[in-house]
Specification:
32% of the residues lie in helices and 18% in strands. With 406 residues, it is of the alpha/beta class. The chain has 2 domains: 245 residues, Alkaline Phosphatase, subunit A, CATH 3.40.720; 140 residues, Alpha-Beta Plaits (2-Layer Sandwich), CATH 3.30.70. The protein has an 8-stranded mixed β-sheet, sandwiched between helices. Strands 3, 4, 5, 6 and 7 form a 5-stranded antiparallel β-sheet that branches. 50% of the residues are buried.
Length: 406
């Protein structure tokens, strides 16, 4: 992958418009050995045409065999080496809802969950309660007080919330309290590095957890919580400085707005219930104002995590049906991929490479792929490559890079 120093040297302010369409958790697996994946099963005439006319391959979000989180996987798509820029989900969630995260702040992403009478988790997402219900649960926690810090808590979407601690001497070196499985109890906050600051912060977090446990014990289904992705402000290099692009994000879920804000993109206002066509229409409305659009589709991932093969297939088909509205804008470069794979068969993120296509009519060399799917992409011209190389390829196809050397 190219260095940011190289990109600063080569990137040009002039060139074509780029759209990066990310279907979260796009990659999948067959339910049976000889079956089709969700993407292969879906009826996708528009995606198949773009695959035939473009160049195809499979991206590796982090490294071979490594299951990626959504934050680092998206940073990779934006060209940030996820092993260098290790960003916790907490700051992404917080910034995504407009919560400022400054130098004295630590943020965490929270999940409301359901526990049984023995304190064991029976549902890690509390039945994906409506955001309005989560707001009521959050209200029960707002008066929690911790010594020496200011505590802010805010609902995000469905079962998710953001937590921010503000004070001197805090550390983000705290492990997740989510055991990631049902049948286990939420974990206490523990340190990932044995420093005075980390021990102090873990103690504060455990005080918060215990007070929350008491306040939530009579709630249903959100009668407990877990915390993940403790992090502070990472001070990332900015998109416009590195790539000379004026960039915008169109997304429904706050976390993806957060990662976009962290790299310096403008976030276009959306409605929480927007569907793919609505998101594409938002791009159309702002088309003249930006060089680069990141458009995020969430529910391919959600339906995969729910284990619903048919529902994930239906989301892919919904995106495909809406694609003409995006193509009518005549982008110079259209990148279509996912941040990671979320096979319904596994009900979770997975390490499997992710289908990707680049459609750039003026510059690409079509390969011999006949449709957009995992096995077709295995044979494509792009091969298997790090996701962090996609941005460089998009810039090249948009003719936004100067020549290197004489």
């Amino acid at each position: 992958m190219a260095s940011f120093d190289l990109m600063r040297r080569l990137a040009k302010k002039q060139g074509g418009k780029i759209v990066m369409l990310v279907m979260d958790g796009l990659g999948g697996l067959p339910l049976e050995v000889d079956g089709l994946t969700e993407l292969e099963e879906a009826t996708t005439p528009n995606l198949d045409r773009l695959a035939r006319e473009g160049s195809n391959g499979l991206t590796i979000p982090i490294a071979r065999g490594i299951e990626p989180g959504s934050g680092p996987a998206h940073l990779a798509l934006f060209g940030y080496d996820p092993l260098v820029y290790d960003i916790g989900r907490g700051v992404l969630e917080a910034i995504g809802i407009g919560m400022e995260v400054g130098p004295d702040d630590i943020a965490a992403r929270g999940n409301f969950c359901t526990v049984d009478d023995n304190g064991l988790i029976t549902d890690r997402r509390a039945g994906r309660i409506p955001t309005e219900q989560a707001a009521e649960v959050v209200d029960a926690l707002r008066d929690i007080r911790l010594p020496g810090v200011e505590l802010t808590i805010q609902e995000v979407k469905e079962h998710r919330f953001a937590l921010r601690l503000r004070g001197k001497g805090l550390s983000s070196q705290i492990l997740d309290t989510d055991p990631q499985v049902v049948g286990a109890a939420p974990l206490p906050a523990q340190v990932s590095a044995n420093t005075t600051e980390a021990q102090h912060t873990a103690g504060l977090v455990n005080q918060f957890i215990e007070q929350a446990r008491e306040r939530l014990k009579n709630q249903r289904p959100a009668n407990m919580l877990t915390l993940r992705g403790f992090s502070g402000d990472p001070a990332l290099p900015q998109f416009q400085d590195v790539y000379k692009l004026k960039a915008a994000c169109v997304a429904v879920y706050p976390m993806y707005k957060g990662v976009s804000r962290l790299v310096g993109m403008d976030v276009i206002e959306t409605d929480p219930h927007d569907e793919p066509l609505d998101e594409f229409n938002h791009i159309a409305e702002a088309w003249d104002d930006y060089d680069f659009f990141f458009c995020h589709i969430k529910y391919t991932d959600s339906r995969g995590e729910d284990g619903s093969f048919d529902a994930k297939t239906a989301v892919i088909e919904q995106v495909d049906a809406a694609l003409p509205a995006l193509l009518d804008l005549q982008p110079d470069v259209l990148v279509i991929t996912g941040d990671h794979s979320t096979p319904a068969r596994l009900k979770s993120h997975s390490w499997h490479p992710v289908p990707a296509l680049i459609w750039a009519p003026a510059t690409h060399m079509p390969d011999r792929v006949t449709g957009f799917g995992e096995r077709e992409c295995m044979t494509g011209a792009l091969g298997q490559f790090p996701a962090a190389e996609l941005m460089v390829l998009a810039l090249a196809h948009a003719r936004r890079l100067d020549r290197y050397g004489a």
